[in-house]
Amino acid sequence: MEMRTPAMFSATPSRPEMPTERLPFTIRRVENEDSLKKAVAIRHAAYARHVPEFARSLALPEACDYEEDTVVLLAESRLDGTPLGTARIRTNIHHPLHIEESVVLPEWLQGRSLGEVERLGVGEGRIGHMVKVALVKAFFEYFEKTGIEYAVIAGRAPVDRHYEQLLFTDVFGDKEMVPLRHAGNMPHRVMAFEIASGEARWSAARHPLLKFFRHTHHPDIHVGVASGVNPGRGVQATPAVPQAPISASLGQLAAA
Q1: Phi and psi for 155 in degrees, rounded to 5?
Q2: What is the pTM of this model?
Q3: 71 pairs with which residues across the strands?
Q4: Nearest one of 9, 63, 7 to 36, comparing CA atoms
Q5: How many CA atoms lie within 13 A of 96 on its CB side?
Q6: Smallest Cα–Cα separation from 171: which of 247, 241, 115?
Q7: Three-state SS across 98-127?
Q8: From CA 104, how far away is CA 102, in angstroms rounded?
Q9: Span 49-78, pLDDT tens digits
Q10: pLDDT single digits (tens) 118-129
Q11: DSSP 49-105
Protein backbone atom coordinates (compact mmCIF):
# COMPACT_ATOMS: atom_id res chain seq x y z
CA MET A 1 0.00 0.00 0.00
CA GLU A 2 1.19 3.53 -0.73
CA MET A 3 1.83 5.89 2.16
CA ARG A 4 -0.13 9.14 1.91
CA THR A 5 2.45 11.95 1.99
CA PRO A 6 1.61 15.67 1.73
CA ALA A 7 3.20 17.55 -1.14
CA MET A 8 4.85 20.13 1.07
CA PHE A 9 6.24 20.39 4.59
CA SER A 10 7.38 23.36 6.63
CA ALA A 11 10.30 23.15 9.05
CA THR A 12 9.77 23.96 12.70
CA PRO A 13 11.32 27.37 13.37
CA SER A 14 13.08 28.15 16.63
CA ARG A 15 12.83 31.44 18.50
CA PRO A 16 16.04 33.46 18.04
CA GLU A 17 16.82 33.38 21.76
CA MET A 18 16.25 29.65 22.13
CA PRO A 19 19.17 27.38 23.00
CA THR A 20 19.61 24.44 20.64
CA GLU A 21 19.98 20.90 21.96
CA ARG A 22 20.84 17.82 19.92
CA LEU A 23 19.34 14.45 20.75
CA PRO A 24 20.92 11.01 20.23
CA PHE A 25 17.95 10.13 18.00
CA THR A 26 15.70 11.72 15.40
CA ILE A 27 11.92 11.91 15.29
CA ARG A 28 10.41 12.06 11.82
CA ARG A 29 7.08 11.22 10.25
CA VAL A 30 6.89 7.90 8.40
CA GLU A 31 6.92 8.42 4.64
CA ASN A 32 7.64 4.97 3.21
CA GLU A 33 7.08 1.28 3.87
CA ASP A 34 10.54 0.65 5.33
CA SER A 35 10.02 3.31 7.98
CA LEU A 36 6.52 2.04 8.68
CA LYS A 37 7.89 -1.46 9.26
CA LYS A 38 10.31 -0.04 11.82
CA ALA A 39 7.49 1.82 13.56
CA VAL A 40 5.30 -1.29 13.64
CA ALA A 41 8.16 -3.39 15.02
CA ILE A 42 8.82 -1.04 17.97
CA ARG A 43 5.06 -0.60 18.49
CA HIS A 44 4.53 -4.35 18.69
CA ALA A 45 7.51 -4.89 21.00
CA ALA A 46 6.41 -2.13 23.38
CA TYR A 47 2.85 -3.43 23.68
CA ALA A 48 4.04 -7.02 24.01
CA ARG A 49 5.82 -6.11 27.27
CA HIS A 50 2.61 -4.89 28.91
CA VAL A 51 -0.42 -6.31 27.05
CA PRO A 52 0.90 -9.36 25.15
CA GLU A 53 -2.49 -10.67 24.03
CA PHE A 54 -3.49 -7.37 22.44
CA ALA A 55 0.01 -6.96 20.98
CA ARG A 56 -0.64 -9.93 18.69
CA SER A 57 -3.01 -7.71 16.69
CA LEU A 58 -0.25 -5.13 16.20
CA ALA A 59 2.34 -7.31 14.47
CA LEU A 60 1.45 -5.82 11.08
CA PRO A 61 0.54 -2.28 9.93
CA GLU A 62 -3.06 -1.28 10.57
CA ALA A 63 -5.27 0.06 7.79
CA CYS A 64 -5.45 3.49 9.44
CA ASP A 65 -1.65 3.82 9.28
CA TYR A 66 -2.21 4.70 5.60
CA GLU A 67 -5.17 7.07 5.95
CA GLU A 68 -5.05 10.77 5.08
CA ASP A 69 -5.88 11.82 8.65
CA THR A 70 -2.96 9.83 10.06
CA VAL A 71 0.67 10.67 10.81
CA VAL A 72 2.96 7.95 12.19
CA LEU A 73 6.02 9.24 14.03
CA LEU A 74 9.22 7.23 14.26
CA ALA A 75 12.19 7.79 16.56
CA GLU A 76 15.46 6.33 15.27
CA SER A 77 18.97 6.21 16.68
CA ARG A 78 21.29 8.72 15.01
CA LEU A 79 24.10 6.20 15.44
CA ASP A 80 22.72 3.23 13.53
CA GLY A 81 19.08 3.88 12.61
CA THR A 82 17.68 1.48 15.22
CA PRO A 83 13.97 2.19 15.88
CA LEU A 84 13.53 3.52 19.41
CA GLY A 85 9.93 4.70 19.61
CA THR A 86 6.76 5.53 17.74
CA ALA A 87 3.40 7.23 18.09
CA ARG A 88 0.44 7.70 15.79
CA ILE A 89 -1.46 10.95 15.35
CA ARG A 90 -4.96 10.91 13.94
CA THR A 91 -7.10 14.02 13.41
CA ASN A 92 -10.81 14.47 12.83
CA ILE A 93 -10.39 16.65 9.74
CA HIS A 94 -11.87 13.96 7.47
CA HIS A 95 -12.95 11.14 9.80
CA PRO A 96 -14.08 10.77 13.43
CA LEU A 97 -11.41 9.84 15.96
CA HIS A 98 -10.98 6.19 16.89
CA ILE A 99 -12.15 7.05 20.40
CA GLU A 100 -15.49 8.07 18.91
CA GLU A 101 -16.12 4.46 17.86
CA SER A 102 -16.66 3.73 21.56
CA VAL A 103 -17.81 6.96 23.22
CA VAL A 104 -19.73 10.14 22.44
CA LEU A 105 -17.53 13.09 23.25
CA PRO A 106 -19.09 15.84 25.39
CA GLU A 107 -20.47 19.05 23.93
CA TRP A 108 -17.35 21.12 24.70
CA LEU A 109 -15.40 18.92 22.28
CA GLN A 110 -18.07 18.75 19.58
CA GLY A 111 -17.30 20.78 16.45
CA ARG A 112 -13.65 21.23 17.48
CA SER A 113 -10.56 20.29 15.51
CA LEU A 114 -9.23 17.35 17.48
CA GLY A 115 -6.06 15.29 17.38
CA GLU A 116 -5.82 11.83 18.91
CA VAL A 117 -2.54 10.28 20.01
CA GLU A 118 -2.44 6.49 20.00
CA ARG A 119 -0.09 3.51 19.70
CA LEU A 120 2.65 5.25 21.69
CA GLY A 121 5.47 2.84 22.32
CA VAL A 122 9.18 3.10 23.15
CA GLY A 123 12.09 0.82 23.84
CA GLU A 124 13.24 -0.12 27.32
CA GLY A 125 15.81 1.62 29.47
CA ARG A 126 16.89 5.21 29.94
CA ILE A 127 16.90 6.02 26.22
CA GLY A 128 13.28 4.86 26.02
CA HIS A 129 12.33 7.36 28.74
CA MET A 130 13.98 10.18 26.79
CA VAL A 131 12.34 9.11 23.55
CA LYS A 132 8.90 9.11 25.18
CA VAL A 133 9.26 12.71 26.34
CA ALA A 134 10.53 13.78 22.90
CA LEU A 135 7.58 12.07 21.19
CA VAL A 136 5.24 14.03 23.47
CA LYS A 137 6.95 17.26 22.38
CA ALA A 138 6.64 16.16 18.75
CA PHE A 139 2.90 15.59 18.84
CA PHE A 140 2.22 18.82 20.74
CA GLU A 141 4.29 20.64 18.11
CA TYR A 142 2.33 19.00 15.31
CA PHE A 143 -1.01 19.95 16.87
CA GLU A 144 0.04 23.53 17.45
CA LYS A 145 1.27 24.04 13.90
CA THR A 146 -1.76 22.41 12.25
CA GLY A 147 -4.33 24.36 14.26
CA ILE A 148 -5.64 21.46 16.33
CA GLU A 149 -7.65 22.85 19.25
CA TYR A 150 -7.62 19.86 21.60
CA ALA A 151 -5.41 16.81 21.94
CA VAL A 152 -7.42 13.75 22.99
CA ILE A 153 -5.85 10.59 24.37
CA ALA A 154 -6.92 7.35 25.99
CA GLY A 155 -4.58 5.89 28.60
CA ARG A 156 -4.81 2.59 30.39
CA ALA A 157 -3.59 2.42 33.96
CA PRO A 158 -0.90 3.35 34.91
CA VAL A 159 -0.13 5.18 31.63
CA ASP A 160 -3.02 7.58 32.32
CA ARG A 161 -1.03 9.15 35.15
CA HIS A 162 1.62 10.32 32.70
CA TYR A 163 -1.00 12.35 30.84
CA GLU A 164 -2.40 13.68 34.09
CA GLN A 165 1.09 14.96 34.89
CA LEU A 166 1.07 16.76 31.53
CA LEU A 167 -2.14 18.56 32.61
CA PHE A 168 -4.57 16.58 30.50
CA THR A 169 -8.03 16.54 32.09
CA ASP A 170 -10.70 13.85 32.26
CA VAL A 171 -13.27 14.04 29.48
CA PHE A 172 -15.81 12.11 31.51
CA GLY A 173 -15.95 11.41 35.25
CA ASP A 174 -12.94 11.75 37.52
CA LYS A 175 -10.50 8.95 36.55
CA GLU A 176 -13.40 7.14 34.83
CA MET A 177 -12.34 4.18 32.69
CA VAL A 178 -14.23 3.12 29.56
CA PRO A 179 -13.60 0.12 27.26
CA LEU A 180 -12.38 1.10 23.79
CA ARG A 181 -12.99 -1.00 20.69
CA HIS A 182 -9.77 -0.01 18.91
CA ALA A 183 -7.78 -0.98 22.02
CA GLY A 184 -9.07 -4.52 22.42
CA ASN A 185 -11.93 -3.34 24.68
CA MET A 186 -9.44 -2.66 27.46
CA PRO A 187 -10.58 0.04 29.93
CA HIS A 188 -8.98 3.42 29.22
CA ARG A 189 -9.22 6.87 30.74
CA VAL A 190 -10.20 9.40 28.07
CA MET A 191 -8.47 12.77 28.57
CA ALA A 192 -8.10 16.06 26.68
CA PHE A 193 -5.72 19.02 26.53
CA GLU A 194 -6.42 22.49 25.11
CA ILE A 195 -3.46 23.34 22.88
CA ALA A 196 -3.76 27.15 22.85
CA SER A 197 -3.50 27.51 26.64
CA GLY A 198 -0.93 24.77 27.14
CA GLU A 199 2.19 26.88 27.58
CA ALA A 200 0.44 29.27 30.00
CA ARG A 201 -0.80 26.40 32.14
CA TRP A 202 2.59 24.65 32.13
CA SER A 203 4.18 27.95 33.16
CA ALA A 204 1.67 28.52 35.96
CA ALA A 205 2.28 25.00 37.21
CA ARG A 206 6.09 25.39 36.93
CA HIS A 207 6.08 22.21 34.95
CA PRO A 208 9.46 20.42 34.98
CA LEU A 209 9.28 19.84 31.22
CA LEU A 210 8.43 23.43 30.25
CA LYS A 211 12.01 24.23 29.23
CA PHE A 212 12.29 21.06 27.12
CA PHE A 213 8.90 21.52 25.49
CA ARG A 214 8.81 25.27 24.88
CA HIS A 215 12.19 26.92 25.44
CA THR A 216 14.67 24.59 23.73
CA HIS A 217 15.02 24.02 19.99
CA HIS A 218 15.48 20.37 19.05
CA PRO A 219 16.42 20.13 15.34
CA ASP A 220 16.27 16.34 15.58
CA ILE A 221 12.49 16.58 16.06
CA HIS A 222 10.96 17.40 12.69
CA VAL A 223 7.38 16.27 12.19
CA GLY A 224 6.62 18.40 9.13
CA VAL A 225 3.35 20.20 8.51
CA ALA A 226 1.05 19.41 5.62
CA SER A 227 0.30 22.45 3.50
CA GLY A 228 -3.33 21.41 3.05
CA VAL A 229 -4.24 21.03 6.70
CA ASN A 230 -7.25 23.06 7.71
CA PRO A 231 -6.03 25.27 10.59
CA GLY A 232 -9.47 26.07 11.90
CA ARG A 233 -13.08 25.06 11.68
CA GLY A 234 -14.83 28.35 12.24
CA VAL A 235 -15.67 27.80 15.90
CA GLN A 236 -14.68 29.97 18.80
CA ALA A 237 -12.44 28.42 21.42
CA THR A 238 -13.90 27.73 24.82
CA PRO A 239 -11.96 28.20 28.05
CA ALA A 240 -9.77 25.27 29.01
CA VAL A 241 -11.13 22.82 31.51
CA PRO A 242 -9.60 23.68 34.92
CA GLN A 243 -6.43 21.78 35.70
CA ALA A 244 -4.58 21.35 38.97
CA PRO A 245 -0.86 22.24 39.20
CA ILE A 246 1.51 19.33 39.39
CA SER A 247 5.02 18.71 40.65
CA ALA A 248 6.11 15.71 38.59
CA SER A 249 9.73 15.17 37.70
CA LEU A 250 11.04 14.22 34.27
CA GLY A 251 11.70 10.71 35.55
CA GLN A 252 8.15 10.29 36.82
CA LEU A 253 6.64 11.33 33.51
CA ALA A 254 8.98 9.25 31.42
CA ALA A 255 8.68 6.07 33.46
CA ALA A 256 7.31 3.21 31.37
Answers
A1: -120, 130
A2: 0.82
A3: 89
A4: 63
A5: 11
A6: 241
A7: HHHHCCCCCHHHCCCCEEEEEEEEECCHHH
A8: 7
A9: 989 999 999 999 999 999 988 999 999 999
A10: 999 999 888 999
A11: HH-HHHHGGGSS--GGGGSTTEEEEEEEETTT--EEEEEEEEESSSS--GGGGT-PP
